[in-house]
Amino acid sequence: KILVKDESKRFGLNAFKMLGGAYAIAQLLCEKYHLDIETLSFEHLKNAIGEKMTFATTTDGNHGRGVAWAAQQLGQNAVIYMPKGSAQERVDAILNLGAECIVTDMNYDDTVRLTMQHAQQHGWEVVQDTAWEGYTKIPTWIMQGYATLADEAVEQMREMGVTPTHVLLQAGVGAMAGGVLGYLVDVYSPQNLHSIIVEPDKADCIYRSGVKGDIVNVGGDMATIMAGLACGEPNPLGWEILRNCATQFISCQDRVAALGMRVLGNPYGNDPRIISGESGAVGLGVLAAVHYHPQRQSLMEKLALNKDAVVLVISTEGDTDVKHYREVVWEGKHAVAP
Description:
Layout (H helix, E strand, L loop, with lengths): L1 E5 L11 H16 L8 H7 L5 E5 L3 H12 L3 E6 L5 H8 L4 E4 L4 H15 L2 E2 L10 H24 L5 E5 L4 H14 L5 E7 L4 H8 L23 H10 L2 E5 L1 H12 L16 H11 L3 H7 L8 E5 L6 H8 L9
Parallel strand pairs: 1-9, 2-3, 2-5, 3-4, 6-7, 6-9, 7-8
Helix pairs in contact: 1-3, 1-6, 6-7, 7-9, 10-11
């Protein structure tokens, strides 16, 4: 049995990421104005804000859109930086939320460093989903916000009367994967949950870190259709959880994500259709690739998959780049070679 949590309809933003950015911004404001987030209403928070603040972040698309949305809702400013090669549709989605959007000529990780420099110069608050020495509080809040995903999934699975045996989580810097996995293993225990972390092979810093047992950074352009996962430096907070709790790490080609997009968009029987983007569909893509692989049986054994398995995957985004989505699902772009 495969359970897919569809995040494409979250607040009309076509992705889950606002859970982290919005929660971190709320925590920042509560700290600044001495408010209790446990009892706070949205209107109270909005009315308590004095002078306008500017929130800055780097994004491949979805996190920045979430930060821009939260800033807009609270009447604040946002400046969003994106790495080179970012799709215009993802840029426009941020601009349409009233934020400033700057596309650099750098990769994701170098753009993060540029964002920090500019924020220090202008006095902006950085709301970044990765951590480094001296910058851990906000990334921790973001991961806690992402854990909402897991809390909802656990509640829904209990209502269905099912217990997951497996979970596949995609990773960029590892903030979502770490936040969600940390929550799930607290509920089910690492021994009872076979967890698999999935990345694009062009940006597989978590996979390489898993092989080595310590953080490994990946440089270069990291050219992959999984734009939301094109990150080369693990979040050390997320990595600690993944190192201690994840069962396996998988590095996969773009065609695996494309296969997942097509399967979700063209379901079997009465299964509901799910519009899932490149970064959202890769978990299901791994399962589909295993199913069609000539060494299917041995791969299933390696992943401990059998007829009794209950597998949770999270479709973290919808068609955030509609043009490319259609090229993949309609025209067969990045098809699996025969």
